[in-house]
Amino acid sequence: MADKKKVIVRVKRQAGPKQEARWEEFALDWRPSMNVIIALRDIAENPLTRDGQKTTPVSYDSNCLEEICGSCAMVINGKARMACSALIDDLEQPIRIEPLSKFPVVRDLAVDRQFMFESLKRVHAWVPIDGTYDLGEGPRVSPETQEKGYPLSNCITCGSCLEVCPQVNEKNPFIGAAIISQVRLFNMHPTGAMHARERLEALMGPGGIADCANAQNCVQACPKGIPLTESIAEVNRQVWKQALFGWLLG
Amino acid sequence: MRQPKIIIVGGGLAGLMATIRVAEAGVPVDLFSIVPVKRSHSVCAQGGINAAKNTKGEGDSTWKHFDDSIYGGDFLANQTLVKRMCEAAPGIIDLLDRMGVMFNRTPEGLLDYRRFGGTLYNRTAFAGATTGQQLLYALDEQVRRHEADGKVRKYEGWTFLSAVLDDAGVCRGICGMDLKSMEVKVFPADAVIFCTGGVGAVFGRSTNSVVCTGSAQAALFQQGVDYANGEFIQVHPTAIPGEDKLRLMSESARGEGGRVWVPRKPGDTRPAKSIPDAERFYFLEEWYPKYGNLVPRDIATRAIHRVVFQEKLGLAGQQAVYLDLTHIPRETLDRKLEGILEIYEKFLGVDPREEPMKVFPAMHYTMGGIWVNNEDQATNVPGIYAAGECDYQYHGANRLGANSLVSCIFGGGIAGPAAVKYAKNLEKGSESADPAIFERERKRQAAMNDALIKQDGSENPVTIWKEMGDVMSEHVTVTRYNKNLELADGKLQALAARFKKINLSDRTQWSNQTLNFTRELGNMLVLARVMTLGALARNESRGAHYKPDYPDRDDANFLKTTRAKWVNGEIKLTYEAVDTSHIPPRPRRYDVAQ
């Protein structure tokens, strides 16, 4: 009897934030439509390395498994992407799975992306409503504005754009394309636009939009196809306008 | 005056709405969530949110929305709350619109509405086919704003283990676990609102996210919080089968004109597009001419099962039917449905604009959940509230599509102020509770963790979970037979026995996901039995609960809510009357107009 077809997976393991990283290799039974999440579940069900050593299940973040919650971003065969939509048959073996490198590792493939949520606070990424009581309908929005805004509002805060950005590193806390694109979104909304200035000012300081060096990796890496470079260019124009004329218009 | 303190567990739509309302009342909130709240399962809702705004000149009204919901739910829902929800829905849409949700628009710049299942009106507001994501983000942004103002404190990456109850049975806080450090800690509060979502993981594979385990509900149940109508499980007619997940294909695909069909000839292997119209069986349109492809989900799901299992017309003999959008212009599809089309394309490598999609029903939603009153989302335990999918109100025996988002926001929206009112009226707050009750609960939970970590058995938690999912999916979903339900219950008890021999294969005390999953699994095994026993006892067919041996609705014996209680470590079923004060029950038929 021929051996069952195997999938060879190498996982970068790290027991905790301060521990050394090491690689473990696994040989899993191939099945049709297998993705990286299924591979990680197989390991959890039978935590044995390829050479038969007992190990622990791999820690990783996941939730929706349909590329809309943003949890399962990791580096697969050198590329930042969502594990749920990474189909095994499309990947060269051995498949190398590593945590995102621009965020602190919690354990194994699980990382802490709190930086992004804090950044959303910093740029006031919201429409400041007066309250949830009944104040009637919202402002009218043209279909054209909606069609521009909707793709921007699809950002899942996965961190892929930060992972591939050469400007994001330990020495430079660049806020990253996702957040800049959110500024564009809120500045586009009729009510949000009334508060554009505070968002633009938040992007002027250290780690702000001036740190973008136009590598354009972000737009390639975005799993949601968000026009990130377009957003950066547009917000850059808004920031310059604010910096040059803001004090005049006061 | 004493400042009350509220805890909210769960940061999906219901939890975030409750949070906003409590923060607006000036009361501090601690918000607990397993995942960063922006990654909650509400993001997976696709098609839209219902509100009878009547913007298309069709004569729609909130009463018709109410009637459709009650009729769609086969008269099991308590009517007064549903009526209030339908009346509030247009205001909820306005609120979301003001928050900046990028809803699709008409040329005049107004919100666009589309058709959905179980109604003949264009009543569903939508943002592409990712409406849940867009709504969740809007509420997430408002909560972040309150967080930046210091009104909300988030505990993301924490899981709920149990409520802290005092000797009088009043809730005084919660016991939670930090999923990084695995620290077990207690948090006092005057009231706690649970918005912990769905139960998909009980069925192994479903359209739900990984965190939808029902663990919190089951933990509360074992502490005396009643659980109602657990047997009512919605199986969505159209999903993409997968080993890790059954990915939803929104009802909005049919709302925009998608058609469900199979070749008339069994085992026909010709490419879909080459099969002439006359040789296609559009079974929903033939069987239900009035509603066609937009019959409610329970009806569509049973029709697909009938076509596949009884008439043996599944595609190429397999468990699948076509969901066909290829007759709709590409531009329309991209503007209104892109999100779901991308899912199909990414996971199957086929463009659904060119080829009909292959779909099959999948466990999707629980109508049942934590018992709450007919007034303000309070449970039977003082100080505990529940809202969103985890409660049992609003949907009766079957939920209409696009009613879940509105029920989450409505329920969360009334639970927040109700909890504040309760907390403010308390004579003595959690600060004056006996400190021993907190330490007692913390020790009890920590001991359960220790026991699991040290346990040296031979069973694997993932294996037990998969077996539970298989049993539940096979016997406790679309078609139910009493002998199979008895079999399922026996199997669940056997799994619970095997659970005691689990080996975690991870004994570390840092970010131990296996430990957390195993705790959840233990709770799921209890909830699975609540559902199974509820189904076993209900000898009728109503909405999503279908027994071929009892094919009709039996109002004389079963127009009543199942209310499960935990009595001395056993599940005990009780029943109570349904509020039918507005619309008298009538037969439910979708082959003719109502």
Spell out the blueprint of helices and strands.
The complex is a heterodimer of chains A (250) and B (594).
Chain A: E1 6-14, E2 21-29, H1 36-45, E3 73-76, E4 79-82, E5 95-98, E6 105-107, E7 110-111, H2 114-122, H3 143-152, H4 160-163, E8 168-169, E9 172-173, H5 177-188, H6 196-202, H7 217-221, H8 228-249
Parallel strand pairs in A: 1-5
Antiparallel strand pairs in A: 1-2, 3-4, 3-5, 6-7, 8-9
Helix pairs in contact in A: 3-5, 5-8
Chain B: E1 6-9, H1 13-24, E2 29-33, E3 49-50, H2 62-72, H3 79-98, E4 113-114, E5 124-125, H4 131-148, E6 152-156, E7 158-165, E8 171-178, E9 184-188, E10 191-194, H5 215-221, E11 227-228, E12 233-240, E13 247-248, H6 252-255, E14 259-263, E15 280-281, H7 283-287, H8 297-310, E16 321-324, H9 330-348, E17 357-366, E18 369-370, E19 384-386, H10 404-425, H11 435-454, H12 461-475, H13 482-499, H14 513-537, H15 555-558, E20 560-567, E21 570-577
Parallel strand pairs in B: 1-2, 1-10, 2-6, 10-19
Antiparallel strand pairs in B: 3-5, 4-5, 7-8, 8-9, 11-18, 11-20, 12-13, 12-17, 14-15, 14-16, 16-17, 20-21
Helix pairs in contact in B: 1-4, 1-10, 2-3, 3-10, 5-14, 12-13, 12-14, 13-14
What features would you highlight for this structure?
heterodimer; A: 250 residues; alpha+beta; Ubiquitin-like (UB roll); Fumarate Reductase Iron-sulfur Protein, Chain B, domain 2; 2 domains; five-stranded mixed β-sheet; two-stranded antiparallel sheet; 8 helices; 9 strands; 16% strand; B: 594 residues; FAD/NAD(P)-binding domain; Flavocytochrome C3, Chain A, domain 1; six-stranded antiparallel β-sheet; 36% helix; globular
